[in-house]
Amino acid sequence: MIKSWVFEFFQAPAVDDTLDPQRSVAYFNGYLDLWARAESLGFHGIFFSEHHFGPAYSPSPNLLVAQIAARTKTLRLGVMGMVLPYHQPWRIVEEIGMLDHLTGGRFEIGTSAGIPNEMEKIGLGVEEARARNDEAQDIIDAALRTPVISHHGKYWQFDNLRLVPRPLQQPSPPVWTTVISSSSARRAARRGSKICTGFLSNAKVMEIFDAYRDEAKSLGWTATADHLALRRQVAFAASGEQARELHAAHRAGSSQRLSNDPRFVVPGRQALDTPVAHAFSLGEEENIVDLPERVGNEIVRQCREVGAGHFLATFRGAGAIKDAWETYGREVNPVLAGASV
Question: Which among 15, 85, 17 has a CA at the least distance from the CA of 52?
Answer without folding.
Answer: 85
